[in-house]
């Protein structure tokens, strides 16, 4: 008998993390392990290596979630996949109310910020910051709180018998979040992917000493090996003021060639760390294109 | 008689934007033009070109403030300077109260999020999301609200006669924000800086078509011209799924050589736009080093 998969998510059931987990594994038959913080996801995976972790890593509006990069880098866990989700915010409340009945809206600060424009029409509604979107809805249901609303995904409305009293209230519709699927069994997962010839992306972190053109050299070597990039971000290392850290995502067709390129750039970098090798998300940040294009058509530079 | 300088800031007096404005211009004699939103800063500058704008552009914890990059890129205004500020959060309330008296804390969602750890000890305190840090303090003072606190800088405490009831409550002390000083009189400012031989940094935005090694080529050309980088960030252009946008900061010693390098990379890029030429902030992201090192020691790659 096949065991039900378990996925550790930040926040409660009904959150975008649960939506991403189910979409990535393409099944409803997956048990959510609810964690209060991203740190708790990492410690859960370390205690039980059969559990997968789902973590938001970047968003088209706010950029990279740097804290999660740091946790990942320091954890020893690896990325085994990615999923890109269009984020929509719904206003949920106990059934039978309208927005005029609402005096407080509770949600995660990011969700509150992303719906600020909508609430300008309702200055009598207090915006209250909480740890999670979906759990704000659960709290309203559990305590049968009239006059209170939560900003959360539609899945939370279904889960907690709440009514959507305002739909898609996010200011900017071009709001996509990229989630990483992480695991403590990285090696086994990668071997499975390799057998299926499905590894075509990896995420690296490294630092570079202060020296003229040091990044240019690394990128030139990768180009010589026909390795493409789909992300690059530099960060100053606070406390080490002459050094930078770089997060880059590589996309490639030939796994062996990719391994050779790592050997070739290692001497040019410092503390090169492979955060994981996985298969490119078929879904693009664009709402329209949801088809399965060939790798050579994936966006890279 | 010399006119008093005016600086448009986001939020109210006493905010980090005011602190950055005064520190950059190295004077207390500067009039703040308070704006509710970053959009309002840009429209203020377009109406009155004598006003400078101060906008937060990146933070060591949350990364780039992408929305402000977009506003800047579309505005036609230019960067004339930068300032890097260590962010500290104070808990402010009407005098004579202790934290046990507080039932609600009001601030900007980012400040609430950055102090979440502190408030875990006080689960009875509701965290309420507002447009601005300092203005939350002003609102408490104006309405003489006991039991309410605001998260804001020390300057707001001085300005609104509030007491600091908990000091430096930010979870992470390595919290620095880089502010840009923007202006509608970019050309005049740059000419003044050029005369003083003080232009040694610039910010560019461009896109690259999907083609192998396209970024590597641009960086190689810059390296040939001895131009260093101090920042690079790629962003997928939502809606144009095979294209990326890049924000890069260049640092250089020789202004003419820099101009030549722009001509050299232009044919390799698309929509290359110069967001401004200015003088590197002498202050580093590090709290310790506040000395005026020579440019060649500035952090670059």
User: Total helix count of chain A?
Assistant: 10
CATH class of the largest domain in chain A: Alpha Beta
Question: Percent helix among the residues of chain A?
Answer: 25-40%
- How many strand elements of chain A? 15
3D shape of chain A? globular
Give the amount of beta strand of chain A, in percent.
25-35%
Count of spatially separate domains of chain A: 3
The CATH homologous superfamily name of the largest domain in chain A equals: Periplasmic binding protein-like II
What is the arithmetic mean of pLDDT of chain A?
89
How many whole angstroms does the radius of gyration of chain A measure? 21 Å
Order of helices and strands of chain A: EHEHEEHEEEHHEHEHEEHEHEEHE
**Largest sheet geometry of chain A:** 6 strands, mixed
Strand pairing plus helix content of chain A: what structural class?
alpha/beta
Which ranges of chain A are low-confidence, i.e. pLDDT below 50, for 5 or more consecutive residues? 284-297
Per CATH, which architecture of the largest domain in chain A?
3-Layer(aba) Sandwich
Assembly type of the chains comes to homodimer
Would you tell me which CATH topology of the largest domain in chain A applies? D-Maltodextrin-Binding Protein, domain 2
Name the pair of protein chains with the most residues at their interface, and give those residue counts. A-B, 56 and 56 residues
N-to-C CA distance of chain A: 45 Å
């Amino acid at each position: 008998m096949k065991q039900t998969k378990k996925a550790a998510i930040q926040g409660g059931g009904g959150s975008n993390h649960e939506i991403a987990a189910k979409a990535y594994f393409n099944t409803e038959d997956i048990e959510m392990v609810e964690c209060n913080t991203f740190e708790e996801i990492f410690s859960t995976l370390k205690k039980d290596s059969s559990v997968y972790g789902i973590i938001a890593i970047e968003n088209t509006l706010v950029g990279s979630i740097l804290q999660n990069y740091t946790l990942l880098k320091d954890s020893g866990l690896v990325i085994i996949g990615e999923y890109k989700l269009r984020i929509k915010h719904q206003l949920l409340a106990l059934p039978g109310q309208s927005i005029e009945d609402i005096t407080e809206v509770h949600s995660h600060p990011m969700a509150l910020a992303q719906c600020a424009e909508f609430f300008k029409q309702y200055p009598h509604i207090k915006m209250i910051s909480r740890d999670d979107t979906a759990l704000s809805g659960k709290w309203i249901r559990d305590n049968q709180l009239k006059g209170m609303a939560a900003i959360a995904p539609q899945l939370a409305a279904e889960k907690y018998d709440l009514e959507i009293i305002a739909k898609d209230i996010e200011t900017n519709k071009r709001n996509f979040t990229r989630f990483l699927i992480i695991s403590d069994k990285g090696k086994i997962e990668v071997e499975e992917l390799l057998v299926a010839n499905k590894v075509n992306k990896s995420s690296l972190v490294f630092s570079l000493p202060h020296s003229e053109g040091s990044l240019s050299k690394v990128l030139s070597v990768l180009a010589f090996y026909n390795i493409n990039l789909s992300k690059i971000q530099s960060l100053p290392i606070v406390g080490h003021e002459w050094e930078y850290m770089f997060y880059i995502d590589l996309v490639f067709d030939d796994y062996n060639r990719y391994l050779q390129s790592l050997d070739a750039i290692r001497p040019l970098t410092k503390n090169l760390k492979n955060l994981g090798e996985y298969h490119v998300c078929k879904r693009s940040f664009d709402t329209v294109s949801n088809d399965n294009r060939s790798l050579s058509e994936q966006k890279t530079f």
